[in-house]
Please model this.
Amino acid sequence: MDYYSGYEAGLIGPSRIVAGECSRFGVTVNTVAPEGLLIAGVQPADIIDEQMQQVPVGRIGAAAEVTHAVGFVRDDRVGFITGSVLDLNGAALLP
Model:
């Protein structure tokens, strides 16, 4: 998916720059990068089955997991995390 790589890089690069600029003011900037999520009512069953076989955890991610990830990186208790990318991919991008 070359288009996805370009899209993702277009978000990650600028967010890291902004994180560096804003960190001295106590502002954190992170990127949550979901991949392979289940979109209810949009994906046919055969596509879902094919995607699940490609993901090492054996299932497709849910939208609620993205919500929880965003909640994590915006929590004040993890204010030392900035300029990071939280990949939500079920280990699909590991070698």
Observations:
- The mean pLDDT is 84.
- The longest strand covers residues 31-34.
- Helices lie at 2-22, 45-54, 63-73.
- The radius of gyration is 15 Å.
